[in-house]
Every structure is written in C-alpha cells, then in structure tokens.
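3.2 Worked example (two chains)
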Amino acid sequence: MNPQDIEQLVKESKIQLQGIDLIEFSFSSQDAPSETHIFEVNVESKVNKKDLNIVIITNIKILTSDKDKCLAKVVTGCRYLVDNLKEFIEKSNDDFEMPILLVDLLNSISLSTTRGIMFELFKGTFLHNYVLPIVNPKDFRVVDSTQETR
C-alpha cells in the first residue's frame, strides 16, 4: 500500500475513545524541591486485533534535575476502537503496522489526556504548576514498538 492510500485509509477511519485508565500513580510527599525538574515521557502502543482496539500507554515521571529523586509518576492507558483496524494488518503473515499518521494522532490525544489527568491529580500540591509541556507526538515514533495483546 502506498503512502497516499494509507493516509486516505486513516482519514476514513472511525476512531472512538473507548476508555481512559489511570494505571499507576505515585507521588512524593516531600516538600517542594528548590531545584528545577524534568519530565521523562514514554509512550507505548499495544494492539488487540481481536477486539479491533489500540491502547496507548503513556508513562510520565517528574524527576529532580539530577534525576536523583522521582517526585511523581503517572501511567495512563487510552483505549481506542478503530473500525477498519483489520485493513492495517498484513494478510500474508498476520503482522500489524500502524501508519505513522495514526500513531501521531493517537499519541497526541493520549499525551493531552494524560496532561489533563496530571493537572487534576496535582491540584493543591507542590506539583500543581508542574504542567507537562507540549511535546511533539512525532518524537515517540518507534518502528517496532507495537505489541499485540491477547
């Protein structure tokens, strides 16, 4: 399938957000650190061919600038139903390859959703103003990161 066909296929896809799960949340109860902080962001895709859904796992850690202490960790799962998911499965060997356009779209939605969850979780704490910065979903493209779930 050529790139134009894939782009058209993604545009014609009906994508529905099926669920949002807070998989893990941890928070350091220590006083606000005086030093700067960094965000460590990881995104992983999992495909369930049977149920025609994709789960994007977003894992965020807020670390002290020296990466010595983890101030908080939030892991979310956003589950999407993609009506034409079977069209992205290679028929000859049952392999699955998500088009980059679809990866970028789902990563963007999942990162934004996680940002909102973090904002709500951190209300009233010293982390309240530690808002996840805007990140480019293209930075999380990994060719072989898609795993199948059963």
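3.2.1 Second chain
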Amino acid sequence: MKVLNNYISYKDIISQIDIKEGDIVCVSSDVLRLICVCRENNEKFDPNTFIDTIIKKIGDKGTLLFPAYNWEFCKGKTFDYKNTLSQVGAINNVALKRKDFKRTKHPIYSFVVWGYDQDYLCNLNNISAWGADSPFAYLYERRAKNFVIGIDYKDGIPLFHYVEEKVGVSYRFFKDFTAPYIGENGEVRDSTYRMYVRDLSLNVVPLPTPLMDDVLLTKGYYLKYSINGIYFALINMHGIGDIIEHEIRTKGELVYLKKI
C-alpha cells in the first residue's frame, strides 16, 4: 500500500494514482470523507475540479465513466435519460449534469461517459443490463481500471453481475421490466429492458471473501493507497473479472453464497 501521511490537496490526489494517459477509468466512490478532510484542512472540495483532474491525466485518448444506476424503472416509474439521477454517488450526479458527459441508454444500469469511447458507449442498445453487448462487457474486454474512492472495492464490484450473467448462475434468472422512457430528445415511449435478477426464494446473496484481496495483490490487479487517511484503490477490471469467473465456475474460496 502506498501511504501519504502529509496532507495533499484533492487537486493533486490523482497525481499519486497509477492512472495513465489513454486509460479507461470507471469510478466507484463515496466522497463524503474526502469532502470532510478537505474542510478540516481549510480547502473546499469542488467535484467538477476533481473530475477535471482525472480527465487531464487520461487525456483525449482516455475514457472516463461514472455509474448512474437507478432502480426506479424496476418499479414501473418513468426513466428520464437527462434528468433521472444516479442512486450510487453524489459526484456521479455532478458528472451527469455536465455538458461534456453523455449517458448510456439502459434505464437501470447506465453510465455517464466522457472521452474517446463516449459515442461508442452511448450508442449501445443493450437490452440486458449486464449482457455481452453492455458497457460492462466493454469494461472487461478493454481492461478498464476501476478507481475506488472511500469504499471497500468488494462492496460494489462493477463486473460481478456481468460475470454471473456470462456464466449463467443457478441463483439468478432473466426478468423483463416495462415502464415509460423519456429519451435523449424528449420522446416518450413504453420500453422493456432486462435484468438478470437474484432468485429471492433461495435466500442467498453472492459475496467476495477477504481472500480476494491477497489474490488480486499477488497478481498485480489491485493497487492500494492511503491518502489523507482515505482509502483509494485501483482494480484491473479484466483481471478481477477472470478471477470471479473462475471462482464461480469452480465453486472456489474467493466467492461464496451467503444465507440471508
């Protein structure tokens, strides 16, 4: 783990992370602690400035994604391409409102995207949230980096459900959801999208075990940082995807089904 004990500005954090020009970066974050630490050091955290530091580092050939997941469509509520907010992070909604970001189309599992592959990703028409034609497949196949801020990476591995659908696990099944969809140009239609949902009658939930850390570290797929007392991580998404797939197929020690 790389540890920096002296306070550094949030504007300089990205300079300490092993992100390179041309990288594809998917951010998973809880920035509350980061905001508080900045305040404690007489600095006001500006999320747009922080986003810009990532953009500057990956450059014009890079691609930056923030999850914009929202599950209200599953309840029959209208999805508005431009205005339905992400339910998985405050900084994600800042990106959603920026003119240089665009949103992918799936109403449940979308991303807001900046950069080189923006048009490709935002033109995908995947019906299944985690299918082989989804942004999740792109993150796996293109060896994206998952930049994790302030949360344990195991609490929300972006590729976990993609791998489950790829393998075809016994505790999930496909379910269609239909609700009103307001498109990018304001057109309204009833639309049907699919998700590989968990079978609630089985009373199990799949989880990675703490052993995952050591395997990822050994293979070089996991870089850990402590900056201003805040946990950051960088995960090789292709690498962790392969490990999860192997563990699910072989019923290994790194993924288990927890009874609930």
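3.3 Remarks
The longest strand covers residues 172-182.
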